[in-house]
Design brief:
alpha+beta; 4-stranded antiparallel sheet; Elongation Factor Tu (Ef-tu), domain 3; rod-shaped; 340 residues; 3 domains; 44% helix; 6-stranded antiparallel beta barrel; 5 helices; OB fold (Dihydrolipoamide Acetyltransferase, E2P)
């Protein structure tokens, strides 16, 4: 009987050992199936410069300073552009006045003056006609010479021509300006308004504003420098969005999709992780970049992911290596890598 008990005890021990081995193998297989990705932090940077050329008058911030959207970063000497705007404003006023003259027409006083000239020349022509008639009668009885009679006739023709000219001038003043003249004046006004808007925009462009919240990485110029349009003055690191660039193998594509929640671990943050979600999966395969460490061969084809970090802070730096895990895998106690 003691031998039987010993045999039973040995069998129980072997069964227990087999159970532990089975549990270990099960958890190991489960661990192997957990999806772990590797990538790098990708913070967008933007080179800031003026849209116009000029002399750099002032810089407000230096490297490392945090700025808010809309804050003034630098300013050019804007006197040349203010002078251009003043000249464009004066030109616009002149063109607008010319258009008003075209639309309003001639003044009543000018029309009345032209009418008075017509009446005056009508009287002159009538008098010349009477003088010619008298000259004709006197010429018939040999009372005047041929020259005097011809002079009277020429005087009538001249008076009638002057009268016709006065009537035409009165007609033009009463009709006002042609439609084509008004259209040309309107086109000149539109051109002058565009020139003024362009000049005022150049004045605004002499002030460099922050396009978004961020941190000044580089201050590339100093006050007094003569800059060409587009020359970089500051390099700004944007605070949002903060992305992680990672890569996934084709065999694991079915386990993720845009919107999948992930947890992001860094080597510097030991007490927790960042939250994020997959925002983009590239439709094109590529070779794994050498900057990304994975457990697979570097020559294996992968697909690029863009993961949006939900709660970024200053702990995430450009190019920092990170480890990404699906949010559902963190409950596995045998998951390798940073603890949940």
């Amino acid at each position: 009987m003691p031998i039987v008990k010993k045999i039973i005890a040995v069998i129980v021990i072997l069964i227990a050992i087999a159970g532990l081995v089975w549990l270990y193998i099960t958890h190991t297989a489960k661990s192997d199936s957990a999806l772990t990705l590797y990538g790098n932090v990708d913070i967008r940077e933007v080179n800031l410069g003026f849209r116009v050329a000029g002399k750099l008058a002032k810089l407000v911030y230096d490297e490392g300073d945090q700025v808010k959207i809309g804050e003034e970063l630098a300013r050019l000497d804007d006197e040349p552009y203010r002078n251009l705007a003043a000249s464009a404003a004066a030109q616009l006023m002149s063109v607008r006045t010319r258009l008003t003259l075209r639309e309003t027409g001639n003044r009543p006083q000018e029309i009345a003056q032209a009418g008075a000239l017509v009446r005056e020349r009508e009287a002159t022509a009538s008098n010349a006609k009477l003088l010619l008639e008298r000259s004709e009668k006197t010429f018939d009885i040999k009372g005047i010479s041929n020259q005097d009679r011809d002079n009277a006739e020429a005087g009538l023709r001249e008076a009638e021509a002057r009268l016709a000219s006065a009537r035409e001038n009165l007609s033009l003043l009463e009709a006002g300006f042609r439609h084509e003249d008004k259209a040309q004046a309107k086109a000149d006004l539109a051109q002058a308004e565009a020139a003024l808007a362009s000049a005022e925009l150049q004045v605004k462009d002499s002030i460099l504003l922050a396009p978004a919240d961020g941190v000044i990485l580089t201050r590339a110029q100093e006050a007094g420098a003569i800059l060409q349009a587009g020359a970089t003055v500051f390099t700004l690191s944007l605070q949002k969005p903060v992305w992680v660039r990672a890569y996934v193998h084709e065999t694991e594509l079915g386990r993720i999709h845009p919107g999948s929640k992930v947890e992001i671990y860094t080597d510097t943050r030991k007490d927790g992780h960042y939250s994020g979600q997959i925002g983009f999966i590239s439709p094109r395969a590529e070779f794994t970049p050498k900057t990304v460490e994975t457990t697979q061969l570097r020559t294996a084809l992968v697909y690029r992911l863009r993961i949006v970090v939900d709660n970024p802070d200053e702990g995430l730096r450009q190019g920092m290596p990170v480890t990404i895990k699906l949010a559902g895998d963190r409950q596995n106690p045998f998951l390798p890598g940073p603890p949940p």
